[in-house]
Amino acid sequence: MSKSKQQRETVLAGRPLEYEVRRSEDATEPRIDIDIQGVQVILPEDSEESPDEILRDNLNWVLSKKRKYDSFRERAPDRVFAPGETFPYLGEDHEIVVEPRPAHEVSEEEIHLRQSAIDQSSLQQVLENFYRTRAREYLSDRVDYFASEIDVEYDNIELRNQRTRWGSCSTNGILSFNWRLIMAPPETIDYVVVHELAHLIESEHNQEFWRIVGEFLPDYKKHADWLDENSVELIFSEDDL
Q1: pLDDT, one tens digit for every residue, the chain (241 residues)
Q2: Total domain count for the chain?
Q3: How many CB atoms within 10 Å of residue 102?
Q4: YgjP-like metallopeptidase domain location, by residue (predicted)?
Q5: Full domain range(s) for residue 17
Q6: What is the CATH number of the domain that holds 178?
Q7: Using CA atoms, how far apart are residues 235 and 241, in angstroms rounded to an integer?
Q8: β-strand 110-114 against 92-99: which pairing, if any?
């Protein structure tokens, strides 16, 4: 669980850098999160380490990630929420169809949305709700499958609005996933699921952790690379920027 947040500014390589400091009950060690919305330094609640020093100690990595996400903003898809537009679903583009129907549905090439739901809200909100519902169903199924394969138990699944952080695993066994993952290819989703379940055995990203991931997904590096290079394709709206 996250607690206090604080906006700060420092200087890296002669340039000002704005970032956010966040303290978390779940954090066991300091870490840096960088996504399309900016830089965060996450600290355990009782940590006395200097966020500025943590950023300076990881100078090259921070600047590289910052450049990557700055370029992501330039590559971000210009989403138009209207019938006939296309949005990704499980890695494939689907055309949005709005029509009178009893329920939303997805076919091989189309996402069918219920006209009456859009009349009461908006296409953007209805599509997000559709994605969230499908994400919960799909992720629950894949988590149950891989939890059985890996022989681990989890407490619960939560969907988060984490922008470009795709998953997390708390110390009490709660798995959190970004609902936008439903737009990614199935193999990429499986990688995120296995990654978080592996944290139930090994909390750190060490050799043993990657051995566990590789045991159940031998080609995980390919899917991790896809997510690293193509996560801009999973931006839902300009609110994500």
Answers
A1: 445 678 999 999 888 999 999 998 878 889 998 877 789 999 998 889 999 999 999 999 999 988 887 777 778 888 999 999 999 999 999 999 999 999 999 999 999 999 999 999 999 999 999 999 999 999 999 999 999 999 999 999 999 887 657 998 988 899 999 999 999 999 999 999 999 999 999 988 899 999 999 999 999 999 999 998 888 889 999 887 6
A2: 2
A3: 7
A4: 31-229
A5: 2-75
A6: 3.30.2010.10
A7: 8
A8: parallel
